Amino acid sequence: MDTMDKIVSLCKRRGFVFPGSEIYGGLQGFYDFGPLGVEMKNNLKSLWWNWMTREHDNVVGIDGAIITHPKVWDASGHVQSFVDPLVECKKCHHRFKADDLNKNACPDCGGLLTEPKMFNILVPTQIGVVEDDKTNVYLRGEACQTIYLDFKNVLNSSRLKIPFGICQIGKAFRNEVTPKNFLFRQREFEQWDLQWFCRPAEMEQWFEYWKAERMHWYKSIFTHPENLGFYEHEKLAHYAKKAFDIEYTASPFGKEIEGIHWRGDWDLSRHSKFSGQDLSYTDSETGEKFVPNIIETSGGVDRTFLFLMLDAYTEEKDRIILKLHPSIAPYKTAVFPLLANKPDLVHKARKVYEILKGSHQSSVVGSQLNIAWDDRGNIGKRYYSQDEIGTPYCVTIDFQTLEDSTVTVRDRDTAKQERVSISELKSYIVGKTVVPRKIERMPGA
Ligand code: GAP
Fold it and tell me: For the domain that residue 382 is a member of, what is the CATH number?
């Protein structure tokens, strides 16, 4: 079994990710996040959000609609250019993305393939209640478009001045010809985007700034940061003037996690033209008027999730460890009474559990942590179970605890144990969960 198959199996067995609509035989390209998966995904998203909007003073967020006016996708160029070359096997009629094939033969049955036909991957739907009077619309093919639509609203409702950024985490939909590689290429997925609006003359320096910032962010959450690299595109998307990908280089299939795109004034100019609205910016001090240029950082939440899992998956002689960064692990800590049949131990362990969760009066740090409770089987089995889902610390309440109010804390990666006093336990755990901080001062700051 290769690592990807092991990850897919672990994800289902332990409740990270389930195949979509499984009881009906599944639906290709769709997945559901289970109890542990949603915790990890939410941790990831809030890290990204906090880092973008709290660490960078002039970045704000929005949460835009998934369905927009249909003209948006004409203006964006997607109706015309968001296409994949599709080929069909003349024998078994399976369809493939021509870009994925090395030779002109069906990978399933060896049959001859048709000439490639261009296939638009926007997902259409209809709105309206009267059968003959429905409006054709699209589910958004990329999340960023709503940021351009709200550019003027954000500007007018805030005190932001150029340069500034608007960010968003949201779903995007693509009718991918061949969804594959688990979460890597789906038909419904989530993106985290920043659109950075700046003066045309300052594009170069901001492009370099965001390239370095985004790489730094990914490096601070991956187990093996050396597996991350840049790839420069030669073939550019219809809107791009320069494009780099941040890649997970150890991936055995596609490697792209995030695109850093120099979009110039394409988006605001096109939406100005198609909507008839002036989307230019006027400098309040100099009176200078111009269409802001845009640098985009657009990453996949689900792809990051998948690559983090692949990067963290470790097999040792007698255990499987998911060496996830503590800030993204579904549980921060697990609490065990040494023996489940000793009421004193269980009672004390329950108290420690409540303190760590933050729902106890004596909790020292305000934040609420997701804490696991386990009193089944023996300690060895509990450790094994927590290692496999990436819980960075296991806290055991034993007989010594009843005497001196200390507990053992076992580190997931080293399996080493140390004694920590209950009064310091929460600060100890929180202190180990260092979240990413920005590295560089912004140009001109
Ligand atoms: N607004 C620019 C844009 O959407 P993109 O390179 O098409 O650019 C950005 O998408 C990111 O979204 C990718 O780097 C990838 O992480 C993620 N992504 C794109 N298509 C995906 C798919 N079918 N399934 C999962 N993630 C996808």
Answer: 3.40.50.800
Q: What is the DSSP string of 17-33?
A: EEETTGGGT--TT-EEE
Same domain, 290 and 406: no
Instruction: Kindly state whether residue 445 falls inside one of the protein's structural domains.
Output: no
Kindly calculate the radius of gyration of the chain based on its CA atoms and give it in whole angstroms: 25
Asked if residue 147 has its Cβ within 6 Å of ligand 1, the reply is: no
Using a cut of 0.90, tell me whether the model's pTM lies above it: yes
Domain count of the fold of the chain: 3
Q: Is the CB of 299 under 6 A from ligand 1?
A: yes
CA 1 / ligand 1 centre spacing (Å): 28
Residues 146, 249, single domain; the answer is yes
Per-residue pLDDT, 56 = 92
What is residue 445's predicted lDDT score, i.e. its pLDDT?
Answer: 53
Residue to mutate (ligand 1; options 30, 176, 189; most atoms within 8 A of CB) = 189
Range of the domain at 92: 83-120
Do 337 and 410 share a structural domain?
A: yes
Question: Within this chain, do residues 30 and 100 fall inside the same structural domain, yes or no?
Answer: no
Q: How far is the CA of 299 from the centre of ligand 1 (A)?
A: 6
Mean pLDDT in consecutive groups of 10 residues from the start of the chain, 445 residues: 95 98 97 98 95 93 97 94 90 89 89 92 92 89 97 95 97 95 98 97 95 95 97 85 95 96 95 97 95 97 98 96 96 97 97 84 55 95 98 98 98 97 94 73 62
Contact 153, 45 (CB under 8 A): no
- d(Cα 193, Cα 181) in Å, to the nearest integer? 23
What does the alpha-carbon distance between residue 409 and residue 383 come to, in Å, rounded to a whole number? 11
Question: Would residue 401 count as lying in a domain?
Answer: yes
174 CA distance to ligand 1 centroid (A)? 9
